[in-house]
Amino acid sequence: KELKEKEESLLVCQQVCKHLQEEVAEKERREEDLKRRTGRSESELETLKALLSQTEQEVLMLKQERELLKSRTEQLQETLRQKVQSEDSWRDKLEMDLAKGEARHKEAILKVREEARVELELERQKQQEVITKFQREHEELQQKIPGLISSATKSLRMEMEILEKKLQDAQMKVAEKDGDKEKEIQSLKRLISELEFQLTMEKSNNESFLDKLRKEIKHKSDELEKLTQEKTQLIHTLSQVQEE
């Protein structure tokens, strides 16, 4: 009867030991799973940080392009201003040449009248033709000047309007890109903050759970060791009983 009781106790002890070993293996497997999940979350966080850095680099490049476009626009405006000044200078020079031509023409007429009084009739017709031709050319030139000035001014204005429109379009595009990038950066920052918070909470929970799990494993290990000792003792006692 005592031998039978010892064998039953040994069987129960073996079953408890097996159950505890299974629980310890399950706890260790859950701990490894938590470590893998934590590593995966950290990898995702690093990827998002790299994406944020890339986005910030793109924003910096867009700002540099905007500054370059602004500098180019200022250069074009300066070039247009110089062209306008050049056109104004050309118009003043042309008017001055016309005035000098008129003055020289008047001096020539007086000089011819003084030197050619005797041949006044013959020379008058010739001079009249020359005067008429010169006047006609002068009138044609006077008529052409406003048209040339108007055409040049109109061309410059059209070019200025086109450049201003291109500048406005470019500024709008740059502003839109800046706005989109800023929104994307804010979204990524919020997402990273949320993930960092979730990761922190998950790490805290995992650490708490791991601590609890370690304590349970230690407790189970102690129980297992104790039961192992009891098993050994029972086996020893059973051996003694069998010998008796």
TrEMBL record:
Top-level taxon: Eukaryota
Keyword Coiled coil assigned: yes
The keyword Coiled coil is annotated on this UniProt entry: yes
InterPro entries: LEKR1
Coiled-coil boundaries: 17-82, 117-180, 210-244
Keyword annotations: Coiled coil
PANTHER family, per the entry: LEUCINE, GLUTAMATE AND LYSINE RICH 1, LEUCINE-, GLUTAMATE- AND LYSINE-RICH PROTEIN 1
Listed name of the protein: LEKR1 protein
Source organism per UniProt: Motacilla alba
Gene that encodes it: Lekr1
